[in-house]
Amino acid sequence: MKTKGKNSGQLHFNNIHNDDYNFTDLCEAYKDLKNFVFVNQYGTETIDFANPKAVKAINTALLFKYYNISFWDFPDDNLCPPIPGRVDYIHYLSDLLKASKINENVSVLDIGTGASCIYPLLGNAVYNWSFVGTDIDKKSLDRAEKIVKKNNLTKVIKLKQQKDATHIFDGILTADDKFSATMCNPPFYKSQEEAMQENARKLEGLGKTEVTRNFSGKQQELWYKGGEKAFIHTYLYESSMFKTNCFWYSTLVSKKENAESMLSSLKKLGATKIKTIPMSQGNKVTRIVAWTFLTEQEQLNW
Questions:
Q1: What φ, ψ does residue 248 adopt, rounded to 5°?
Q2: pTM, entire model
Q3: Residues 79, 114: contact at Cβ < 8 Å?
Q4: What are the pLDDT digits (tens) for 27-68?
Q5: What is the distance between the alpha carbons of residues 301 and 295, in angstroms, rounded to a whole number?
Q6: What is the CA radius of gyration of the chain?
Q7: Contact 253, 262 (CB under 8 A)
Q8: Over 90: is that where the pLDDT of 222 sits?
Q9: Cα-flanking dihedrals φ and ψ of residue 46, to 5°?
Q10: How many Å apart are CA 123 and CA 134, to the nearest integer?
Q11: What is the predicted pLDDT for the residue at 9?
């Protein structure tokens, strides 16, 4: 009987999740995962990836096993992030920072950190970055704060509430703030209906018919009026109001056409460099778009 479950390939070459999942090791790291592991028709240990509780259990196990996390808990209706994909963003952002000769004292502003606080946890564990995480939802920040405290990370991860849902950086950044980079995983959908339709399509691909999200997710995590495009263009515009507060602004972009529309907008806003970084995880294709407003001299003096 095989002892490893298949994980999607094509991740960043530094991503330790390029190999198959070893469920023996993962169950040792997080014993509750055992309740969801079974042997499929091919003799391979796996879990039901359409089951939200199973998905949460395996991602908890990955954090416990590989990222020195000992506590990670939040309500089941909050979005459960897939660790391999989330750490991929971290690795690609690291490449970008190193190419800009930003190797030490890296500080990152995470927009929409959520109850899981996932990017700060991963970025600190892998590269020792410090973080400020923001969110509009106070309950999510309270959950994230508990995770930070229980993992003794309060000196390197700070949290801040965005109290105005129509803004992203305004009300968060001050004139004196300096960040090496920002990162963001924006809401993809325009409405709850669109989110549910997409989820039904994914579940059908997994051979399921139940109406549930295998990664869960609350309203502010999944949809935004105008969808991904509207959110991103607010993000772009507000970043231009704080040109020298951050070296690299960045965001994930799921739709190719949205990434393309960003280029002309960023040029009009005065971006001096724009990078589009492709990411691929199995059949899923996405990308990171990063930009800076700094002049060459400002970059050298950073």
A1: -120, 120
A2: 0.87
A3: yes
A4: 999 999 999 999 999 999 999 999 999 999 999 999 999 999
A5: 10
A6: 19
A7: yes
A8: no
A9: -160, -175
A10: 15
A11: 57
Q: pLDDT by residue (tens digit) across 137-169?
A: 999 999 999 999 999 999 999 999 999 989 999
Residue 39 pLDDT: 95
Task: Indicate whether 62 belongs to any domain.
Answer: no
Q: Are 275 and 291 in contact (CB under 8 A)?
A: yes
Number of structural domains (the chain) is 1
Alpha helix positions (H), 162-222: 192-205, 219-222
pLDDT at 220: 47
* CA nearest neighbour of 246 among 198, 290, 186, 188: 290
Band of pLDDT at residue 208, cut at 50, 70 and 90: low
The amino acid at 207: G
Tell me the residue range of the domain where 80 lies.
75-300
**Within 13 Å of residue 150, how many CA atoms lie on the same side as its CB?**
14
Please check the confidence at residue 227 and state whether its pLDDT lies above 60. yes
**Domain annotation covers residue 41:** no
**CATH label of the domain that carries residue 290:** 3.40.50.150
Which residue in this structure is represented by tokens 């927009």?
Answer: 111
Task: Determine, yes or no, domain membership for 135.
Answer: yes
Mean pLDDT computed over 127-133: 98
Residue 98 resides in a domain: yes
Cα 164 from chain centroid (whole Å): 22
How far apart are the C-alpha atoms of 289 and 253, rounded to whole Å? Answer: 7
Residues 5 and 48 sit within 8 Å (Cβ to Cβ): no
